[in-house]
Every structure is written in C-alpha cells, then in structure tokens.
Specification:
Layout lengths: L1 H90 L3 H36 L1
C-alpha cells in the first residue's frame, strides 16, 4: 500500500512537473517570439539608419566637391581680375608723370595769355590818353 501511495504521489509529481514544463515551454515560446520581433524591429531600424548615414555621406561628399569647385572658380576669377587690374594700371601713367606737367603748362599758358591781355590793355589805355 505504501508503494502504491508512493507511486500515486510520484505520478502526481510527474504530472505537475510536466505541466510546469509545458507552461514554461509556452512562456519561453512567447519570450522567443517577442525577442524575434524585437530583433526584426532592431534590424529594420538599423538598416534605415545605415541608409540615412550613407545618404548623408554621399550628400556631404557632393557638397565638398561643389564647394571645392566654387572655391577653384572664385580663385580663378580673382586671379583674372588681378591680372586685368595690373594690365590696366600699367597702361595708365601716374599723375606726376602725365597730369602734372600738362596742368603746369596749361596754367603757364593761361598766365601768359592773361599777362599779354593786361599789357595790351595798358598800351591801349596809354594810347587813348595820348590822343
């Protein structure tokens, strides 16, 4: 009888262990399912992030190339303007070389004309007085 009671008790423990094992199996199945879903979400997010980073890198290199081209074009333009200014500056002589002597001769000629007019006016006046 004791053996039979032990057997019944052992069968009860076996069924309990099987039921607990089955419950844990179901719970672990749910955990695995959730972990797989989280892994899938994480993988997709990672893929989207990777694509965005690659797009930013491409746009960054395109921008770098465009800036380098603009810088080169600006440098060429500045060099051209400098060359043109140097050429124009070399074509024109300074005021001291050209303008000042011409201005002085103009002033001297105007002074000479004024003196000549003054002398003529004085002579005309003296001649009128004599008459």
């Amino acid at each position: 009888e004791v053996v039979e009671a032990m057997r019944v008790q052992l069968d009860g423990h076996t069924k309990l262990i099987q039921r607990v094992a089955e419950e844990w199996g179901n719970k672990l199945g749910g955990v695995k399912k959730n972990a797989d879903a989280a892994h899938e979400v994480l993988y997709k997010s990672h893929e989207v992030l990777r694509q965005r980073v690659e797009g930013l890198a491409r746009n960054g290199s395109d921008t770098d190339r465009a800036l380098a081209e603009a810088k080169r074009t600006a440098a060429e333009g500045i060099a051209w303007v400098r060359t043109e200014l140097k050429d124009e500056a070399s074509r024109w002589r300074t005021f001291e070389d050209v303008g000042q002597p011409a201005l002085l001769s103009l002033v001297e000629s105007k002074l000479g004309e004024a003196e000549t007019r003054s002398v003529r006016a004085a002579l005309d006046y003296a001649e009128r007085l004599r008459r």
